[in-house]
Write a structure and sequence with these properties.
There is one protein chain. By secondary structure, this protein is an alpha/beta fold. The protein has 12 helices and 9 strands. A 9-stranded mixed beta sheet has the order 8-7-6-5-3-4-2-1-9, with helices on both faces. Helix 1 crosses helix 8. The longest helix has 32 residues. The protein is elongated and about 85 Å long. The C terminus is likely disordered.
Length: 377
């Protein structure tokens, strides 16, 4: 065999080996970033400590008797679960609160309580790839379809006259903005986004340092296309925000380095609604706007709700529902969640063929938050 043929074979083998390594690396990147999230390990005074975010986990114990599990099937067959916290007397106002990457339903306690104290029933979905919901992480781009189905579920349960508010933190914030830009039913009255990101390219680029996007994002882009069936560049939340018409409140910490404030500003600037606000909190890091300035956050949040959802008004402080700790009675279990003492989830079969309008073609998904990839907010 001539020398040039040997060199050609060796070169071909090297190229093939590099291609296989790239493919494996791409799939590994998707698995690491968009694989199922395990519940964060709670350690005091760390990024995974709920109290750091102003979350009062014991609040759920006070509403456990009015909490039930609900479920539905997503467009791709994934079973999704949520907790519904009902008012003693429903006023046909429901808030859907979506948590962030790596977080749980309980991480939305702050927003859930603000809504509940103003007379709203509150739905807390476990986002796909999290908690009791199936599938892999949708990173807002797939979750938007799930949220539209939750909206339909609420309309079925509460009737056509229900008023719905959408609220989310980080990945959840991007989810509610995306869904609001997809012509949701008229029952959706307003949207609140707390530290959401503007696109997949923007949020991932914020974490690759000075590496050029074309190089740093290539493995993940290939993996997302292979596993989830859409292009990374297609996952543009800001583009959908241009279609929004409902009132929108955007909240962002000015010291947010995980989802830089500029990404929240981009969402706000892109939002097509004529009624929109951008509220920033000085010195607040990622998802810490409430914990940094509770009074300003609550006042802005509540004023926005009262202005844009008919009949919304302060009802009571649900902190009074939290059982008092006494020497004779054990403290509420720290693991008590919004699902406590609730019946097993009921799963609704989709009324159609399992496909939703606008579902990404060739999607085979079966199924950023905190300051570390596994952190909850």
């Amino acid at each position: 065999m001539q020398g040039w043929m040997i060199a050609l074979i060796i070169a071909a083998c090297v190229v093939a080996a590099l291609a296989v390594a790239f493919l494996v690396g791409s799939l590994a990147a998707v698995h690491i970033i968009l694989g199922r999230r395990k519940p964060p390990v709670v350690k005091p005074n760390t990024v995974n400590d709920p109290e750091r975010y102003g979350v009062n986990g014991e609040w759920f114990a006070g509403v456990s008797d009015v909490t039930e599990k609900v479920g539905l099937v997503a467009y791709d067959g994934v079973a999704l679960c949520a907790s519904l916290i009902r008012q003693k007397q429903s006023q046909a106002r429901v808030a859907i609160c979506c948590h962030g990457y790596g977080a749980t339903q309980k991480s939305m306690q702050v927003q859930a309580k603000l809504f509940y104290d103003r007379g709203f029933d509150v739905l807390l979905p476990s986002m796909r790839g999290h908690g009791e919901s199936g599938g892999k992480v949708g990173m807002a781009w797939l979750d938007r379809f799930d949220l539209l189905r939750w909206i339909d579920k609420i309309i079925d349960m509460f009737g056509a006259n229900v008023s719905i508010a959408l609220c989310g933190v980080s990945m959840g914030g991007s989810t509610v903005v995306a869904a609001a830009g997809m012509n949701p039913p008229p029952q959706v009255k307003c949207v609140i986004d707390d530290c959401g990101f503007s696109s997949h390219v923007d949020i991932y680029s914020a974490h690759i340092g000075r590496v050029p996007k074309s190089i740093g994002l290539l493995p993940l882009s290939v993996g997302v296309r292979l596993v989830h069936g859409y292009a990374l560049g297609d996952a543009d939340i800001a583009a959908l925000a241009k279609n929004m018409t409902v009132p929108a409140l955007f909240i962002h910490g000015e010291a947010d380095k995980f989802v830089p404030t500029a990404l929240g500003q981009k969402l706000f600037d892109s939002c097509g609604s004529q009624n929109k606000q951008f509220f920033t909190v000085p010195d607040a890091a990622h998802a810490l706007s409430f914990a940094t300035d509770r009074e300003a956050y609550s006042q802005t949040f509540n004023a926005f709700i009262d202005e844009n959802v008919a009949g919304s008004a302060f009802v009571f402080d649900s902190n009074s529902l939290i059982p008092e700790k006494t020497p004779d009675a054990p403290a509420p279990d720290e693991d008590t969640s919004a699902d406590a003492s609730a019946p097993a989830p009921s799963v609704d079969l989709p009324a159609d063929d399992g496909q939703a309008d606008g579902v990404p073609e060739n999607s085979v998904a079966d199924g950023i938050d905190g300051e570390t990839p596994t952190a909850g907010e």
